[in-house]
Description:
This protein is mainly β. The chain contains no helices and eight strands. The strands form two sheets. Strands 1-2-3-4 form a four-stranded antiparallel β-sheet, with no helix packed on it. It has a four-stranded antiparallel β-sheet with strand order 5-6-7-8, with no helix packed on it. The radius of gyration is 14 Å and the shape is globular.
Amino acid sequence: MNDFTVADLDSDGVNEAIFGNFSPREIWITKFNEIDTTFDSIKVFPNPYIEDVAGFPIGDFDMDGKTDIVYAGAMGNIYLIECEGIDDYQMNWTGILASQIPI
Length: 103
Ligand SMILES: [Ca+2]
Ligand SMILES: [Ca+2]
């Protein structure tokens, strides 16, 4: 588990946790369950590339009112997950650091 980060990602008053899993390499978003005080899995994003990832800056970087979550991989890939609604998350953008682009 990598960079366990807790925040209310969908602004519903209940905290989510997002973290990276090493084997297999995936990003997990979970939601705090107030009844049994554990985290319930909401969404798992497999890494498109075999690389370790770290993050997770959280904000509304494109100012559209929906929370954005960013993380980056060891090979220079950058990923952005956006919260589209309560418990609804989509990977909306991926990119690569400029120094990694072949010229
Ligand atoms: Ca929430
Ligand atoms: Ca946004």
